[in-house]
Amino acid sequence: MVPNILVADDSLTMRLILQAALAGAGWQVMLATNGKEALEKSQASAFDLVLSDWNMPVMGGLGFIQGLRAQARYKETPVLVLTTEEDDVSKTAARELGVSGWVNKPVDPDGLVEFVAELLGIDPPN
């Protein structure tokens, strides 16, 4: 089964970079431009892993992840937060929601693919 990954980021450039890296690894990727759109997509489809920017318009990462965790099928789903933030308040809020990791921008695509493969419990692509 090919992993299905949801990416939420308001930056077109980041979405394209993440899509290229993850799809290049052979995984299915669905994109969302904000937390509200991502939450709607999470209700319509099942995802094996979620990457979310922290600061987005309409609905940010915190609200999105709260809504995601409120759905039974996403209680244990790995979630990675993408951000430029370094503040402890944000990190604590993310940890309390069971976030699997905090990835600082700019993202190293190869490192991200390895991290995602590890969280999915699969071998990274060659």
Order of strands across the main sheet: 2-1-3-4-5
Shape designation? globular
In quaternary terms, these chains amount to single chain
Proportion in helices:
40-55%
Q: Compute the number of helices.
A: 5
Which spans of ≥5 residues are poorly predicted at pLDDT below 50? none
* Alpha-beta classification: alpha/beta
Biggest pleated sheet = 5 strands, parallel
Radius of gyration: 13 Å
Question: Which key terms come to mind for this protein?
Answer:
alpha/beta, 5 helices, 5 strands, about 40% helix, globular
Report on the architecture of this protein.
This protein is an alpha/beta fold. The chain is 42% helix and 19% strand. It has helices at residues 12-24, 35-44, 61-69, 88-96, 109-120; strands spanning 4-8, 28-32, 49-53, 79-83, 101-104. The protein has a 5-stranded parallel β-sheet, with helices on both faces. β4 (79-83), α4 (88-96) and β5 form a beta-alpha-beta unit. α1 (12-24) crosses α5 (109-120) and α2 runs parallel beside α3 (61-69). The chain is globular, with a radius of gyration of 13 Å. The model has no long low-confidence stretch (mean pLDDT 93).
Topology:
Blueprint: E1 4-8, H1 12-24, E2 28-32, H2 35-44, E3 49-53, H3 61-69, E4 79-83, H4 88-96, E5 101-104, H5 109-120
Helix pairs in contact: 1-5, 2-3
How would you summarize what this structure contains?
The protein is α/β, with parallel strands linked by helices. It is built from five helices and five strands.
